Amino acid sequence: MKWFAGSVSTAIQVSRKNNALFIVFIESKNGRGEKMRQLWDKLVDSDPTPVLPASYFIDNLGKPIEVITLLKDMDYDEFFSKINNSVKTFTAATKAAPVNHALSQQAAASHEVSAASSSHPPTSSTAAPLDDKIQRAKLLLEQKKRLEEEAKKEEEKRLELERIQAGKLMQEAQKKREEQELIEAAAQRRRDKIEAEKVRERLKAQIKADREEREFRERRGKPLDASAAGDMPPKEAAPRMEPVPSDRCRVQVRLPDGDNIVEEFPSSDCLNNLVELIRQDGRVCGAFSIAQVYPRKVFCDEELQKSFLDLCLTPNCTLLIVQV
């Protein structure tokens, strides 16, 4: 048996280069090692294919195909069968290697083509839907923005209209308030004028009543004789009084001691209510009569049952208390 004379690494390189089966025989100096050497020698004599005892069958990639040892006894047929199977395995792997290499190259080329395709930009057919989506998104954004701007303008317009309307309402309210104030001021002036007129009339009536009362007292203090009475001009007839419509009647009563009683009565009350008021006052004692200053008149019992309006005493009058 002729073995490779170089190192193991060199033997591996040579087997790869020649695409040959790489066999390693580890020899031992005992009976079994001698027996395996004899088997190798016998195999060489009968078949050029190498075989070993602690023998390794290694392919061109350095991978063991078969390991034969003499851990148990084996005959030549079994030993030859193992070697034959290793050779067949190596032969099949060697034939399949070019095909696998071509497939590997084809797969690598396909991978490179795929990588190149993925690195290139998409074609027009795939880019078109994406462009359409982008365009639609832009249109939707522009439409949304336009709608928001229109809504904002409408809101500003609505607020402006509300502000204008509120201003108009405030102006109208101010105008109505001023008009109401003018109306109330005019009404107050009319009331003040009427009240002033009433006060003036009352003052005139009071002055007239005071003058007539003074004249009446002076006449009572100076008795008139017949000659003087004959020389006096005839007394004028009392003027005819007409009732003045009024709801109230203001009455001023002069007491004998000079005090006054001022009271208002409904015009429909009878004069006897005034008599009761004077009696309740307590400042007039005894019997008394009620006299009108002008025209001079003393009311009788029948007239005491008449109303102030029927006696033409409205709206105001001055009466005297004459003690009997």
TrEMBL record:
<feature type="region of interest" description="Disordered">
    <location>
        <begin position="103"/>
        <end position="130"/>
    </location>
</feature>
<dbReference type="InterPro" id="IPR001012">
    <property type="entry name" value="UBX_dom"/>
</dbReference>
<dbReference type="Pfam" id="PF00789">
    <property type="entry name" value="UBX"/>
</dbReference>
<feature type="region of interest" description="Disordered">
    <location>
        <begin position="211"/>
        <end position="245"/>
    </location>
</feature>
<feature type="compositionally biased region" description="Low complexity">
    <location>
        <begin position="104"/>
        <end position="129"/>
    </location>
</feature>
<protein>
    <recommendedName>
        <fullName>UBX domain-containing protein 4</fullName>
    </recommendedName>
</protein>
<feature type="compositionally biased region" description="Basic and acidic residues">
    <location>
        <begin position="211"/>
        <end position="223"/>
    </location>
</feature>
<dbReference type="GO" id="GO:0036503">
    <property type="term" value="P:ERAD pathway"/>
</dbReference>
<feature type="compositionally biased region" description="Basic and acidic residues">
    <location>
        <begin position="233"/>
        <end position="245"/>
    </location>
</feature>
<dbReference type="GO" id="GO:0005783">
    <property type="term" value="C:endoplasmic reticulum"/>
</dbReference>
<feature type="domain" description="UBX">
    <location>
        <begin position="244"/>
        <end position="321"/>
    </location>
</feature>
<dbReference type="InterPro" id="IPR029071">
    <property type="entry name" value="Ubiquitin-like_domsf"/>
</dbReference>
